[in-house]
Amino acid sequence: MLLSFLGSVSWLQFWIVFGIAALVWGVYVYKDVLLGKSPPEEEEQASKRIWSVQEVEKAPTVQQSLLNDDEAPVVDDEEQTDEEVEESDTEAEFEDGVFDDLEALAEKINEIFTNNVAVEDKEQLITLLKPEVSRFTSLNRLPFKVAIHNLIERQAQQNYNITLTKAETDTLWLA
């Protein structure tokens, strides 16, 4: 039955059906271009994050050190009081401004590295970066410092072939 149907289809009919199917597929794939729609644009290029975060080993807590001494501490699992909740809400509001500072500092660091300033050694690079980094005292906390250190270390290696240590990048935060 199928064989008799295929025998009755001419090559002209086959190519007409194939051409129509290809045309329909092409219209479906390129419908946005044909209708004049442009793909959605990103809101801003500046909103793109330009730093990276590296996980750091945490120092053992007091509870962990007590557990290592074969003493099981008594842990109270009580809910937060209203005052503690209000404090955490205030900290969350404060964090929003910190992320703006983080973006501003990351942009400033990128400007320093992209201005094609001739940097010959680590000391000269640290001298260029120190005034900018030390201005942002709100970022002198571990998660933010790690992100900024990673950005500085990566940019220094890429642009000037200078390898900075953690101790050297820590000196940037001192005024």
Features:
8 helices, transmembrane, transmembrane helix, mainly alpha, rod-shaped, 175 residues, membrane, 62% helix
What does the secondary structure layout of this molecule look like, with pairings?
Elements (H helix, E strand, L loop, with lengths): L1 H7 L2 H19 L1 H5 L26 H7 L13 H33 L7 H14 L6 H19 L5 H5 L5
Helix pairs in contact: 5-6, 5-7
Characterise this structure:
There is one protein chain. The chain is an all-alpha fold and 175 residues long. Among the domains are: 11-35, no CATH class; 95-175, no CATH class. It is 62% helix and 0% strand. The protein contains eight helices and no strands. The chain is rod-shaped and about 90 Å long. It starts with a helix and ends in a 5-residue tail after the last helix. 10% of the residues are buried.
Provide a compact summary of the structure.
The protein has 175 residues and is mostly helical. Among the domains are: 11-35, no CATH class; 95-175, no CATH class.
For the terminal residues, how far apart are their CA atoms?
A: 89 Å
Radius of gyration: 30 Å
Give the integer mean of the pLDDT values: 75
SSE pattern: HHHHHHHH
Tally of helical segments: 8
| Number of DSSP strand runs | 0
Low-confidence stretches: 69-80, 85-90
Instruction: Work out the strand percent.
Output: under 5%
Structural class of the secondary elements?
A: mainly alpha
Oligomer type: single chain
Spatial shape: rod-shaped
Helix proportion of residues, in percent? 55-70%
Largest beta sheet, briefly? none
